[in-house]
């Protein structure tokens, strides 16, 4: 089994050890790619949604896209502050995202809502694991950033799922 190689880091006076910074850069790189992917999955839905509730869902997708873009910037800036090189191209995102590719033929608003909720749920679970990883590494600031992103992703998941969740009463 090949050993995972730490990324080359730019020189910095950052107080975290080089090993910790390297591990956090790798962690953040995965989440940068995922944030970029989610940003464009959400925009894909925004551009192509159709249905009776079009305007509300269209606006929701645009708001979720803007919020995800903020996460992209925050994650990339933390990654570079640790001495890493942010890999923020569409190609890098497609190679490193944890998300399944978004179907390009979706139109129906409920189909978009359900599919985006799948992506948001996958990232939410990965963010929870990343919080633990950053905590164990002793990187409180990365842990805090990922916690903030996780809160936002969980809220977005709630907004998406609320369109199709129905409580059954007896």
TrEMBL record:
Protein's UniProt name: DNA starvation/stationary phase protection protein Dps
Residue span(s) of domain Ferritin/DPS: 26-166
Organism: Fulvimarina uroteuthidis
Stored Pfam families: Ferritin
TM stretches of this protein: none
Gene it is expressed from: dps
Similarity field: Belongs to the Dps family.
Alphabetical list of PANTHER family matching this protein: DNA PROTECTION DURING STARVATION PROTEIN, GENERAL STRESS PROTEIN 20U
């Amino acid at each position: 089994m090949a050993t995972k190689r730490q990324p080359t880091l730019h020189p910095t006076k950052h107080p975290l050890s080089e090993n910790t910074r390297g591990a956090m850069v790798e962690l953040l790189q995965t989440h940068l790619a995922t944030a970029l992917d989610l940003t464009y999955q959400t925009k894909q839905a925004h551009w192509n949604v159709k249905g009776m509730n079009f305007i509300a869902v269209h606006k929701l997708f645009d708001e979720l896209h803007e919020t995800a873009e903020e996460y992209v910037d925050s994650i990339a800036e933390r990654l570079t502050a640790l001495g890493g090189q942010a890999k923020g191209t569409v190609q890098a995102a497609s190679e490193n995202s944890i998300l399944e590719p978004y179907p390009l033929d979706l139109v129906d608003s409920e189909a978009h809502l359900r599919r985006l909720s799948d992506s948001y749920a996958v990232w939410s679970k990965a963010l929870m694991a990343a919080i633990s990883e950053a905590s164990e590494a002793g990187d409180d600031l990365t842990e805090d950033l990922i916690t903030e992103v996780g809160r936002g992703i969980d809220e977005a998941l709630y907004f998406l799922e609320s369109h199709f969740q129905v409580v059954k009463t007896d």
